[in-house]
Amino acid sequence: FWLDYINDIDNTKGILDVSFLASFLNERPELNKYAKGLLKEDKAYAVSETLVNEGFPLPVETEIVFKNEYRFDVDVRGRELAMFSYDNKSVRTTSIEHGFGQFREEFDFKKFPFDTQKLLITMHHAQASEANPDLTYDNTSSVNFITPNVGPFIGLDNFKNNNILKEWTVISTDIISKEIIEKNYYDPYLDKIFTKRNNGIDLILEIKRNSAHYFYKIIIPVFLILCVAWFVLWIPTDKLDARLTTSIVALLSLIAYNFVFADDIPKLDYLTALDKYVLMSYIFCCIPTFMSIGFSRFIVKNQRMVINLNRRLRTWLGLVYILLTIQIFQA
């Protein structure tokens, strides 16, 4: 497996779009006895009626299936028919796929935009592993394994070192074997329900988002707008008009700026770290307005109390905001 490029990572739909070249080689020792004297070494053969008539059985095409593939587009994907060869006195079948592939991913954006994601490309054998011959088409038991050779490891490692993604940095790559178990699988041809097992592998890329864009274009501007609203608390408490005008203008500016960066934030049914930060900033942006309106009722009767309370709140609430911001992005 050779990963050429990661073309796109769709955060909203959870889709990974890549261009790749995959070669699948299958050892077929059960065909060796037919190949002696019939097939030449170091030569590839296509399945043909001539060879079948000469006594060579039709080899079963053992496809590899990409389990989490989102869509197979024949216009941008090439799939070559399986060829077989007789190398080192062993029959092998080889199939090749190349082009573009889209794969479903499960993203966790709770720490967005300082998040790390794991991208998976899962593949398994088209032939299930089954010990019960009554659950196979040809009534034979079989076990199929997928084993990566050194090539995929080198390919993923080269991609890590030559990554051209602007938004993401590749932290690590790995290949892990696993058993894919599908319970209550219904086979319409056998008219039976059973547990289907496939051997498979996961190609894993761990990537970290480059968050500078969100830090400089969202977090810092939101913080500066909040600072304008918060500095209202340094305006004398008896200047109600000036305090209200400044705080309301800052709140409206924050609302307007939220529409500017709305498209940069994933639309999710839960709050990300950035969502929590913006929501908290809204609350703290409203506090100076609420305080000014509340103080206006007591400024005439007890001006000293209002001034002391204003001084304490602007200090302690400012520290609370900073601590909550650190907690949100560090959690």
Characterization of this structure:
This protein is α+β, with helices and mostly antiparallel strands and 331 residues long. Helices cover 34% and strands 32% of the residues. It has 7 helices and 10 strands. It has helices spanning 32-35, 49-53, 150-161, 212-230, 240-260, 273-295, 303-330, and strands spanning 2-10, 15-27, 44-46, 64-66, 69-71, 77-87, 90-104, 116-125, 168-187, 192-209. The strands form 2 sheets. Strands 1, 2, 3, 5, 6 and 7 form a 6-stranded antiparallel beta sheet that branches. It has a 4-stranded antiparallel beta sheet with strand order 4-8-10-9, with helices on one face. A hairpin with a 2-residue loop joins β6 and β7. α6 (273-295) packs antiparallel against α7. The radius of gyration is 31 Å and the shape is elongated. The protein starts with a strand and ends with a helix. The relative contact order is 0.11.
List the SSEs and their pairings.
Layout (H helix, E strand, L loop, with lengths): L1 E9 L4 E13 L4 H4 L8 E3 L2 H5 L10 E3 L2 E3 L5 E11 L2 E15 L11 E10 L24 H12 L6 E20 L4 E18 L2 H19 L9 H21 L12 H23 L7 H28 L1
Antiparallel strand pairs: 1-2, 2-7, 3-6, 4-8, 5-7, 6-7, 8-10, 9-10
Helix pairs in contact: 4-5, 4-6, 5-6, 6-7
Comma- or semicolon-separated keywords:
alpha+beta, single chain, elongated, 6-stranded antiparallel beta sheet, 32% strand, 10 strands, 7 helices, 4-stranded antiparallel beta sheet, 331 residues
Short description:
With 331 residues, the protein is of the alpha+beta class. It is 34% helix and 32% strand.
Number of helices: 7
Write the H/E string, N to C: EEHEHEEEEEHEEHHHH
Task: State the end-to-end CA separation.
Answer: 36 Å
Q: Output mean pLDDT.
A: 84
Number of strands: 10
Could you say which structural class the secondary elements and strand pairing correspond to? Answer: alpha+beta
Q: What is the 3D form? A: elongated
Largest sheet: 6 strands, antiparallel
Radius of gyration: 31 Å
Low-confidence stretches: none
Give the helix proportion (percent range). Answer: 25-40%
How large a portion of the residues is in β-strands, by DSSP E? Answer: 25-35%
